[in-house]
Predict the structure of DUF6879 domain-containing protein.
Amino acid sequence: MLDLLAPDLVPEQGDRLTRTAYKQDFRQREDAVRDGSSWKLERRQHFEEQGSPSRDALRRGDWEEALRLLADRRDTLAETAQEDERRGYAFHRVRVVERPLTPYVQWELHSQRQRAEYGQRIRIVSAAQVAASEDTGPLPEVVVLGGRTLFQVLYTEAGVADGAIRYTDRDLVERWENYIKALYAVGEEVISYFDREVAHLDPPTLSDAGRE
């Protein structure tokens, strides 16, 4: 368990963005980062991602196709890695994992291991390691861009993207960045975690309700 507590987020102190506005604002702010870093905390164990053919294949229960489609994006990942290196940019992810793995997390860890092969910085922590910050509920989904902007990414109960709340208070942004950095420091590299805990697993079994 990590003794450091996550800072509070008060929605009224931020700006509520629609999904479209969030995507546009995120892209602009991330593209502007030079010689800097960003930090993302992923807590939910299920998302209904949109616009991912591999995710769509998982939803249909076609595990082999889902993995094949992940493999098809290697050129894109290599190009992104080269661009990040050119502008001195590093994106860090901390993924909280509960056991047993949900079908979504099992699929996502395949994706993240592949990303790590191309230099993305991804580490895994257990739910026990963030328990001190979850007395009133799970941690939010948070992204800190370039040390200047914090997005609390919002989802419906079903896991569908629902926009975000943007915070720009420098003290709040810094405290959240430090919290995610502390988790990253105690986390395990995704490649070693995957090879030990995930690689040997059978394809996930999806429920009949919406195929997951």
